[in-house]
User: Fold this.
Amino acid sequence: MLDPREYKDWQIAAEAEKRLPSVETFREQLGLLPEEIIPFGKTPKLDFLKIMKRLKDRPDGKYIEVTAITPTPLGEGKSTTALGLIEGLGKRGVNVGGCLRQPSGGPTMNIKGTAAGGGNALLIPMTEFSLGLTGDINDITNAHNLAMVALTARMQHENNYNDEQLAERGLRRLDIDPKNIEMGWVMDFAAQALRNIVIGLGGPKDGFMMQSKFGITVSSELMAILSIATDLKDLRERIANIVVAYDRQGNPVTTRDLEVDGAMTAWMRNTINPTLCYTVEHQPCLVHAGPFANIAIGQSSIVGDRMALKLYDYNVTESGFAADIGFEKFWNVKCRLSGLKPNVSVLVCTIRALKMHGGGPQVFPGRPLPEEYTKENLDLLEKGLENLVHHIQTVKKSGINPVVCINAFATDTEAEINLIRRACESMGVRCARSEHWQYGGDGALELADAVIEAAEEPSDLKFLYPMDLPLRKRVEKIAKEVYGAAGVEWSPLAKEKAKRFESDPKYNEYATMMVKTHLSLSHDPQLKGVPKNWWLPIRDILVYGGAKFLCPMAGSISLMPGTSSDPAFRRIDVNTETGEVSGLF
Assistant:
């Protein structure tokens, strides 16, 4: 085991990959048949349809979810903790594995880096995982953009031909409104220059000229659909119902209307199968679906978790961002759609992040951390504990057993650790210190033991709201009981849309997918800790007809992030002698 204080993540990953057992070893370990493995080098896909048909009567294992306090620039380490927990449970002799999301190329090449964890709690093969893996995101990009090709070509032809000429070509006029286009184009990089564009410049043969836009691929509705689809048939039906645009009478124009839904599904046919990856300590970990918890569910897929629960005795998964966003969607959307009942939710915190929530100073990239974060400061920590307590209360409302993980740093003191332990004990919640980043599974034994104990206790999953509750009342309940808002303020546009959705019974079955900043319990990223006496502003509601999501939008959220002035791609390179990629983090 390499010391992460001396070696980079990509170096630790490369060393672990040298000792990685063969795919055949993992096939036998997981009890899979040869025909259930779809070859793809070190990262094969697992045939979901075949495996689930064979194992449909096998009891599910324990279901463990990882969430966190409100994120800060200091980091909390959910993915690192999820992988460390898998390694710790492995050290305890448990048949354990995970199911995590695939990272997006935007963050990987930007500030955040990959989502492979870190130190000795790391996912391998790190290069493949970080740079496209088995092509799911590429397939989503192609399927999404094919819908836009179909739309723009149809608009061009309807503009150039009369109804009789269209009929000769086997087409009917859809009368698409160029000012009411729902979709845009996607690519999997953070390209702010493409947020607002004009397309179709030139002559009649160069397309229909109009305003358009790009989003990042993982924000595509297709990623949301992949996250919640239950099988290939469900995936196909949902793709057909994606609303691409509206006609001039305000009626939706779907991919089915454009006759492109079948071809889109053809592009995505292989995405239904999760990919097999591994921890650096060589436990199996499925990878399926992608991030972007602002719009999509932002966590591993229902398909991936269902398969993992058949293959492992303990399946560890992760929700994007903090418990107010990722866990709330895991609880009220993913678990409702999947029918799966989690046993434990691990709530990750760090002492330095809690100090920031307590009023600690700002941090800046490239500058040393202020001493408030590297020396004992019980006053700041005690004030910041309010954020942890708030999230604990959210998890407890779900009926899932919470376990608090203190993701430890070398600068943490015993007095600071004990302060958090006492706060958890006062709430009747288990608390474990974990040093998985430095020591891997050996550093996560206390956390593993706490999770094993909590998983043996009964959990009683109960949703925050019934599906027949009107949309505005759902949003108000989430805002007050999860975010801590005093109430909800609706813009005229959002209120008008909400009334329309509430009057149509078909929208009762649509999930409520809240859209707000992940950097605060509120809509304002500057408000840390637990803000008081604030109202949640809803400015608009997005509709995902295929995923069946209604997305109330609080504040301004861009579907296309921007690349910073000092992105990660400046440090990534390839050894031309060995082909080894360096600089990933």
Summary: The chain is about 35% helix and 20% strand. Residues 136-160 form the longest helix (25 residues). The mean pLDDT is 95.
